[in-house]
């Protein structure tokens, strides 16, 4: 897969569905000319839901999707018929995806298990029909509620790779070479700094038909916070690794100095 296809950050406008309005209606039938209220409730607006998928490893499929809109709920009907709920909008995301509010930085949720679902923007509640408001004092209510408005907001989806082993080291330390030697992954390997521009994943097989996932993280150098090298944007992919494996080049002039041991 080309490097440009690795997308780990997207910002999308989400709009959940508004709730359907309740119905104001009175039963009229032969033999019951003065029937009571029978207006039904409106349906709930559609949620926007994230669903984890182990078949995805990037947010590329959402790169150009700037708006996600769920269906509104339908209006209630006569004979106490409840309106149909708005259809929920599902977004498949790779495991390790975090939902964040770009204004406050608040984490709304994260998906770490295949098939896991989280509601990030709930739909509006449906309004109550006039049948709900009848009582011994008011036996013929003529009002019904409007549906609750949906929520419109911008949210950020960030991908933090889930791997068992993360390879960490300076540029050209041999991280990509090791990954290509122990797995079927084929990252770009060359004799110049920052050959690896995006994280690479490989599945490493070992005894008894078991396996684990190894991640090759782009090199981080001193001064990355000021923009040197590739910066610190890929540090998020180290957070979820179970183990960090530091690679130290055998030809390093001073290991203690470089790694501040």
Principal-axes geometry comes out as elongated
- Strand arrangement, major sheet: 3-1-8-5-6
**Proportion in β-strands:** 25-35%
**What Rg is obtained from the alpha carbons, in whole angstroms?**
27 Å
Number of helices: 2
CATH class value of the largest domain: Mainly Beta
Helix-and-strand structural type: mainly beta
CATH architecture classification of the largest domain: Distorted Sandwich
N-C termini distance = 37 Å
Structural notes for this entry:
With 261 residues, this protein is mainly beta. It has two domains: 1-159, GTP1/OBG domain (Spo0b-associated Gtp-binding Protein, Chain: A, Distorted Sandwich); 165-259, 3-Layer(aba) Sandwich (Rossmann fold), CATH 3.40.50.300. 5% of the residues lie in helices and 25% in strands. The strands form three sheets. Strands 3-1-8-5-6 form a five-stranded mixed beta sheet, with no helix packed on it. Strand 5 and strand 6 form a beta hairpin. The longest helix is centred in the last third of the chain and has 8 residues, at 175-182. The two termini are 37 Å apart.
Question: Would you summarize the structure shown here?
Answer:
The protein has helices spanning 175-182, 255-259, and strands at residues 9-15, 48-53, 67-69, 89-94, 97-100, 107-111, 117-121, 152-159, 165-168, 200-206, 210-216, 243-246. The protein is mostly beta strands.
Question: How does the SSE layout of this entry go?
Answer:
Blueprint: E1 9-15, E2 48-53, E3 67-69, E4 89-94, E5 97-100, E6 107-111, E7 117-121, E8 152-159, E9 165-168, H1 175-182, E10 200-206, E11 210-216, E12 243-246, H2 255-259
Parallel strand pairs: 1-3, 2-4, 9-11, 9-12
Antiparallel strand pairs: 1-8, 2-7, 5-6, 5-8, 10-11
